[in-house]
Amino acid sequence: MVAGACLLAPRALAAGLYATTALLALAALGSAAIHLATLAGLSRRPVRVEASLVRPGDRERLRNRALLDHAPIPLLYRTGDGAFHAANRAARRLFATEDRLPADTASLLGPPTPERRIVRIPTMPDAPPRTFALAIAQGSGAGGVTHFLALTDIEAELNAADARTLRDLLQILGHEIMNSLTPIISLAETAHEVADHPMDPPAADMIREALGTILRRTRGLDRFVQGYRDLARLPPPDLRPTDLHDLLRALGALFDARWNGRVHLETSVPPRRVIVRLDAAQMEQALLNLLNNAAEAALATSDAAGPTVWLQGHATSTGMVIAVRDNGSGIEDAYRDAIFRPFFSLKPNGNGIGLSLARQIALAHGGSLTLEPPRPDTPWHTAFLLSL
Question: Domain locations in the chain?
């Protein structure tokens, strides 16, 4: 308005409009006064500075938490009161807690020591525990922290190492035993042919019987060793999408054909269709070994409920678990760590290859085969869990 009045006033004065000129001058002066008064009022108004919503100390804590949450391995810390706390997202997910670990879970970590060690931690209710390498560092005591802990999942590495060791062992044994058996078989066959020529009848019968026994036993031993060589030469699995329902139904049919009602089989399948990538032929062989062992154990033990085997499969967040259970007499604690070793068997005529082969197949699929700890509150006494 001031600028407009200044422009119009000279024109009005030149035109002789003195009254209009005076009004324009007064309007310009009034507008200028109002403008100056407004500026003066604004200059006297106090300036308010908004405080930060996050304090500097909190900003650093939030930044550190964001960095820890991106770490792929579970991180923990221990405070002076002996409690363990989850430090990042991976630890919170593993132990299903937002901060403090439950006492029964914390007891699995044991008393903190500086050296690196191995711990077994259950990751899901229906899955076997997984193996973790535990690294522990001493804390400075700041904020009450006495120790820092890092857990690295080494289950797959251990399984791969076990598989390599087992293959190497079986290849060496197969090579050495075959070198010994070959000349024995050859000599036995030669002697058996010589004994067919005319000679003293009693002597000939004795030689023929002895050599026939040697020949049968050496051929049996040859087949026995060939089985171990087949275990060492297990081909890589041909992984293809497989319906878990179809696999369990096929196993049930094979079991019923083998045991013909002498052992009752209870099968539990997932409520929904589950597709997994596996070698169906190899997996069927592994599970049949477990089922047949379970049936033999159930038959060998008198039980009021009758010999029963349970076959159960269900999906997990990372794959699947198939359980084979029986109500036999169970496995003694002294043998629980030995049953998966090659050549070890608790059966009078067992060759110790069934469980070893089943575990080899599970390891080749990137999974595991474990013996579940005894549970007195269940009807079964032995339970094997095959996880993929």
Answer: 2-34, 67-153, 158-232, 240-387
